[in-house]
C-alpha cells in the first residue's frame, strides 16, 4: 500500500466536568487527508485546501506530528500529505488534532502498523504543542481511539477508552468569533477551592459511571462544570442563552467545546439533537453572529480509511 | 415482624482519588444490632456492648438517625436498639456509619419499607453529623447500598452505585492511635491548584472506569491521591512504610481509610490480600503500636438480616 485516504473526525474536548481529561470523537464532521509514501526522506505538505494554514512542514501540525513519527521509525523514505479541511481552525472542535492524528494514523497504516495507538497519541501531541503551546491529548486521543476517551495521566501517558452509549448524539454550534486557545487558558484561575474540586470529581465520577451504564439521566446530571465554564463562557457571546435553550429543548447537558467558541450539547436520540440545534441557531440568528451547526452520533471508530 | 438482628458492615471512605465521594462496604468486619418495635414512642438504646459510647438517644448516632426516620414516618410507636460493637470508634472504618445505618435500615424493614435506600442515607447522615460535625454520606451510602458507591452530589443528594469487581479484596490495618476527624479535617488546605485538581479527577475517572471494566491494573494505576494523603499521612506513624510494604507485596493500591488512622489496601485475590496484611503488621510490630488487621472481600449487599 502506497497511499491512503482517511477521514479525520472533529472532537469535543474539555467535556464539562472532564476539563483537560475527557474527549469524544464526532462522526458527521471531519477533514479528509491523503497520505502517500515517497522515496525522498521527509514530510511534504503538497496540498492544503479549505483553510488558510501554513504548508511548511515545521509550521504545519500534520507536518510536525509526521516528523515525530518518522524520527522514531526505521523507514528511510518520506510522506506526502494532502489536507482537505472541513473543520475550521480555531473553532474549538479539534481542527489541529484532526490533521495531526490523520497524518500519523495513515503513516502507521502504510508502514505496517509498527506503532501502538497510544504511541500515535504521543506523536500527534507534538502537533498540538505547535498549535497551542501545550502538548495536550484530550482531542487527539478520541480522534485516534474513537468514542469517549479519558486522559488519566500524562506522566506516564495513560489513555482509557470509555464506553459510548449508542443513543447519544452531539449537537455543536460554532459561532464565528475568534478566541485564541492561549487567551482562554490565560483567564483560568491557577487555584480552586478543595470544595470545588470535590464537586468536579464527584461529577466526573458520575459521568464515567453514566457512560458505562448507559444511564442518560445520570450523564445529564453529571454534565456540570463549576470551575472553568463560568469563567470561559464570558468570552462567548450568547453562551448562557444557548445553554438555556439547549436544555429546554431536551439536551442532557451543554458546555464549551475545547476552549471555545464552539458550544456542544449531548442528547438522547437524533430527534432531540436536531431540536437542540434549532434552539442554538436561533440565539445566534437573533444576535447576528454567523455560525455552523453540526449534529452527530458518537464516532466509535475514530480515524478511518475512506 | 417485631424484631430484627442485622449485620452492619465497616466501610472505607475517602478512597484515594475519591476523597469525599467514594466509599466501599466490607464483608468480614462489622457490628451487630437488634432493633425491636415498642409501643412507646421514641428511640431507646437498651444495650451497648463492645465500646464505651453514650446511650442517651440524642447523644448516640443510632439514636439520632433513628429519630430522623421516626419524625418522617407515620408510625406512632417506637424502637428499642441493642448495639454490639466490633468496629472501634475513631478507627476510620465507619464505626458511626455502621450504627446509624443499621438502625434506620432495620426500622425501615420493620415498618414495611416506607422509605427508599437514598432516603435512609439522609437519615443516617444525621448520625454522621453528630459524630463528626459534618453530615457526610461516603460511609453511610456504601453501608446501605453495598459495594462501591459514589456521592456525586449533596445538593441534591445523588448516590451512584458502582460495580464491584469480583476478585477485589481489601486489607485494612488499624494502628491504635487516636486521630480526631475534626483535627484531620482542620489540617487540610482549603485551596488546591487547578493542576492538582485535574490530576485527581483524571485518576477518579480512571478508577471508576477500572471498577466497571474490572481492569485491576487500571484500578491500581488510578489509586493515587496527591492532595489529601500527603498531608493527612503525617498524622499516621509508619504510613509510608505500610504503603511501601503493601505495594511491594502485590497490592493494587493503598491509602488512608476515612480520615485515618486505619490504612487500606486493595488487592486482586485473597492470597495477595493476606500477604499484604502480613507486611502491614510487620511495620507496627517493629515500631510497637497495637493494631488490628482485617481482610475482606467487597460486601456487595450492604446491611443484612442475620
UniProtKB/TrEMBL annotation, chains A, B:
Q: EC annotation? A: 2.7.1.39
Q: What is the top-level taxon of the source organism?
A: Bacteria
Record carries keyword Transferase: yes
Return the Pfam families for the record: GHMP_kinases_C (PF08544), GHMP_kinases_N (PF00288)
Q: Name one GO cellular component term.
A: cytoplasm
Q: What does this protein do?
A: Catalyzes the ATP-dependent phosphorylation of L-homoserine to L-homoserine phosphate.
**Name used for this protein in its record:** Homoserine kinase
**Source species:** Maribacter luteus
**Which gene does this sequence derive from?**
thrB
Amino acid at each position: 500500500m502506497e497511499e491512503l485516504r482517511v477521514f479525520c473526525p472533529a472532537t469535543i474536548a474539555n467535556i464539562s466536568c472532564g476539563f483537560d481529561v475527557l474527549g469524544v470523537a464526532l462522526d458527521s464532521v471531519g477533514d479528509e487527508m491523503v497520505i502517500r509514501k515517497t522515496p525522498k526522506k521527509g514530510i511534504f505538505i503538497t496540498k492544503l485546501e479549505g483553510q488558510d494554514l501554513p504548508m511548511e512542514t515545521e509550521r504545519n501540525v500534520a507536518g510536525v506530528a509526521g516528523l515525530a513519527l518518522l524520527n522514531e521509525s526505521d523507514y528511510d523514505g518520506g510522506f506526502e500529505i494532502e489536507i482537505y479541511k472541513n473543520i475550521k481552525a480555531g473553532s474549538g472542535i479539534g481542527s489541529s488534532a484532526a490533521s495531526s492524528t490523520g497524518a500519523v494514523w495513515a503513516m502507521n497504516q502504510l508502514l505496517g502498523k509498527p506503532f501502538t495507538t497510544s504511541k500515535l497519541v504521543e506523536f500527534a501531541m507534538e502537533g498540538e504543542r505547535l498549535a497551542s503551546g501545550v502538548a495536550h491529548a484530550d482531542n487527539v486521543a478520541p480522534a485516534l481511539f474513537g468514542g469517549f476517551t479519558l486522559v488519566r495521566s500524562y506522566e506516564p501517558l495513560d489513555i482509557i477508552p470509555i464506553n459510548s452509549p449508542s443513543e447519544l448524539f452531539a449537537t455543536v454550534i460554532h459561532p464565528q468569533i475568534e478566541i485564541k486557545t492561549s487567551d482562554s487558558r490565560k483567564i483560568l484561575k491557577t487555584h480552586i477551592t478543595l470544595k470545588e474540586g470535590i464537586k468536579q470529581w464527584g461529577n466526573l465520577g458520575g459521568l464515567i459511571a453514566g457512560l458505562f451504564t448507559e444511564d442518560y439521566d445520570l450523564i445529564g446530571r453529571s454534565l456540570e462544570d463549576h470551575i472553568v465554564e463560568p469563567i470561559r463562557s464570558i468570552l462567548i457571546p450568547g453562551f448562557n442563552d444557548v445553554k438555556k435553550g439547549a436544555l429546554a429543548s431536551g439536551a442532557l447537558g451543554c458546555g464549551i467545546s475545547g476552549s471555545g467558541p464552539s458550544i456542544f450539547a449531548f442528547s438522547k436520540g437524533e430527534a432531540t439533537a436536531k431540536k437542540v440545534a434549532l434552539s442554538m441557531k436561533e440565539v445566534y440568528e437573533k444576535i447576528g453572529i454567523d455560525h455552523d451547526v453540526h449534529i452527530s452520533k458518537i464516532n466509535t471508530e475514530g480515524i478511518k480509511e475512506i
